[in-house]
Amino acid sequence: MRENLISVLGRGNQELFHSAFLAWLLKPTSAHGLGTRFARAILECLPASYSEGLSGGYEVRTEFREGHSRFDILVRPAKPAAGTKGIVFENKVKSFGTHLQLDAYREQGYNVAVFALLPETLDPDTKTRYPIIEYTTLRDLISSMPLDSQNGYHFFVVQYFEFLDHALSAFDLIRRFACGALQAPVFLQKIANVVEGADFSDNDIRTFNYFYYYNLAEYLRKQAPDLWFGDAGYQENAPEAQRVNTRWLFEKNMQGPPFMEAILHRPFDPHSRWTMHPTFGPLYEQRQFQVAPRLEVWLDLRRIAEAQDPYREVGQIMLGTWSDDLRGMLRDIEPYKSSLKRCGPRNFHREMIQVQELPFDRLAERLRRLLGLLFLQRA
Fold it and tell me: Which one of 60, 93, 294, 353 is CB 3.0 to 4.6 Å from 261, fit for a cystine?
C-alpha cells in the first residue's frame, strides 16, 4: 500500500476520526460539493421510516450529548416535528457494541442504525434489532460518488476510500485463506501487496485475531459439529456450577495474548461425539476434572507478509486442565510422560501452528488429533 494520508496521520483506528469524516460526507453544505448525494445513498440502505422528517432539510452533529447519552453521529430534521427526532448512527470501528446502548437511544425517540467495520464485533441482538451498514458498503457508496479531480476536497475523499479499501482487503484475504479459497503462497503474495508499508498497532493485530477466531468458531459450529462441545459462555447457565461444556470462547484479551478456548466439564456427555479414553476414566469417576483445548495465534500481517514463509510459526494449540490429579497422572504414565510438551502451569501439552495450517479445515484436523490424546471419537 502506497503512503496514504489517513495512515500517515495515524487516524485509521480512531472512531472519532471516522465519525467526523462520515458526518462531513453526510452534511450537504460541506465543501465536498456532493450535496445530499451521500446522505441519500445512506438512507436508501435504511428502512423508509428513517427518512421521515428529513425532506425539509437536516443538520448533522457528532459527539452530540443528550442526557446521559452521547451519539457518534446524529442526523436530525432542521425543523423537527412530533415523532421525528432523527437518526442516531452508532459507529463501531475496532471496538465492540451491545444492543443495550442502542436500546437507550431508541427509548429517547430516535431511529438507530450502526456503521460497523466488522459485523463480527456486534452482539446478536444488535444484528437482529437494528439496521447495520458495513464499512464495505460505505466504501462502495463512496466509490460511486461523482468526484471531480479539480476539487481539492475530493482528494481527501479518494484517500479515505483507498484507506478503507486496503483495510477491508486485509480482512477479506484472511477470510478467503481461512475458508480455503486461497492457497498459502497466493495468500502470502496478496497480503504483501495489501500491507506494504503498513505499521499495525497491537490493537490492529488483536482485531485480526478476533476476526479469525469468530469465523473459526462459526466454521466449527456449522461444519465440524464434533468439535462444537456446548453453547454456554463463561457466565451463561453457570457452566462451572452446572458442569456443562462451553462453546468456543474468544476475545481480544487486552491483558495478554488473544485466545480461543472451550472448557469441557462433561467429557462423558452422551450427546458428545467424544468419550474419555479408558485410561483416565477411573480418575474422572473419582474426581471430575475439566479439560480445555486452547488456541493462540498472533496475526501480525506485516511480519507474515515480509517472511513469505508458509512454515512460519504464528501460534500454538494447547490442551490444559485445572486438575492437579490429571496433570500428575500425565507426568507419571507413558506415552504421555515423555511425549507431552508442557506450557505453563495449566496446559499439559502444546503444539505450534504454522501459517499453512490456518485454514479452518486443517486447524479442525489439528484439534481432532489434539483431543485424541485424551479422548476417543464415537462411531
Answer: 294
| φ, ψ for residue 91, nearest 5 deg | -110, 120
d(CA 188, CA 177): 10
Residue 135, φ and ψ in degrees, nearest 5:
-65, -25
Instruction: Count, in order, helices (H) and strands (E) of the chain.
Output: 15, 12
Q: What is the pLDDT of residue 271?
A: 66
Report the sign of the C-alpha dihedral through residues 8, 256, 115, 358, in that order.
positive
- Say which residues have a Cβ less than 8 Å from residue 28's Cβ, sequence separation at least 6: 35, 36, 39, 58
Domain extent listing, the chain: 5-173, 201-377
Cα–Cα separations (whole angstroms), residue 281 to 130, 219, 274, 277: 49, 30, 13, 7
The 10s digit of each residue's pLDDT in 47-81 is 999 998 898 889 999 999 998 899 999 999 988 77
DSSP-assigned letters across all residues of 279-346: GGHHHHHHS---BEEEEEE---HHHHHHHT-TT-EEEEEEEE-S-HHHHHHHHHSTTHHHH---BTTT
Query: Which single residue is written with the C-alpha cell 482487503?
Result: 169
d(CA 142, CA 136): 10
Cβ contacts of 192 within 8 Å, gap of 6 or more: 305, 306, 308
Amino acid at 147: L
Write down the pTM of the prediction.
0.90
pLDDT digits (tens, 9 = 90+) for 95-111: 777 899 999 999 999 99
135 near 166, Cβ under 8 Å? no
Strand 259-261 with 58-66, pairing: unpaired
Instruction: Look at residues 31, 23, 75 and name the one whose alpha carbon lies nearest to residue 50.
Output: 75
Q: What is the DSSP string of 203-248?
A: HHHHHHHHHHHHHHHHHHHHH-GGG----B-SSTT-HHHHT--B--
8 Å CB contact between 353 and 254: no
